[in-house]
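does this look right to u?? zinc ion version
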Amino acid sequence: MGFDQDRFLVSVNDGLLCCICRDVLEDPVQGGCEHAYCSPCIHGWLVQQSCCPEDRRDLHETSLRPLSRYMKNDLDSLQIRCKNASAGCQVTCRLEHVTAHEAGCQYDAVECPLMGCSQTMERRSLDEHLTRCQFRRLCPSGCGMPMLSADDIQHSCIAELRQTNDLLRSEMICKLEEQKQDFLSKIVEMNQQHRQEIVALRTTMVELKEVVDVMVSRDRKRSEEIKKIGADKRELTNMLRNFLKQHVLREDTDRPSTSKSKQTSSVV
Ligand SMILES: [Zn+2]
Ligand SMILES: [Zn+2]
Ligand SMILES: [Zn+2]
Ligand SMILES: [Zn+2]
Ligand SMILES: [Zn+2]
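got this back:
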């Protein structure tokens, strides 16, 4: 009962383990105390007992209910390897899809369905076996499937084709799931890259802003200096003008009046 923890890609939260078999919950139910168990595990236990195996609180068949939705979601989304991984099956998928995959897994051991033949093989070898099995006889109605016996009354062409169809569908679901996971992990990776780029851009922006601030303050200081130099220049010019004016006035009083107008014009 339960799924072996080794089959999961990451370690499974304790809350998703069966209180009885300590494996990951399979076909789970929950008691009023919130503890969860595999259905067969707890039914077996309640034959002898009438309490929760974990906390010994009262528990009866009638108080068992389906797993809460959030726990079910957590359980369903666990990534699990196919039970035939050791035989070579590379498939991993969500727990909720693994039963469908395994029902059609190409590495699963199957028995030749032909009456009289008892050979066992991996499913992927069955088609080839059926083409050469000594007990082989094809459906006379034209579906092309092998008949299980000479007068196979259970054979229905439609049912055979539907079964093949179902197998293909479950394989497709797993493949789609794998692609979806692939796609999601790529998106996550791209997001991380973008986030790093944004952080780098922000740092660059901060650095640029510092440079601009330095330049602006340097510019402001320079224009203040220029203003000050202008004021100094004006002050100096005024001083010079005043000095010259006084000088000229003094010369005027010292010299004869004939050269007065010429002197003044050359100064201004
Ligand atoms: Zn169990
Ligand atoms: Zn309990
Ligand atoms: Zn498989
Ligand atoms: Zn056979
Ligand atoms: Zn047929």
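The longest strand covers residues 28-30. idk if thats expected tbh
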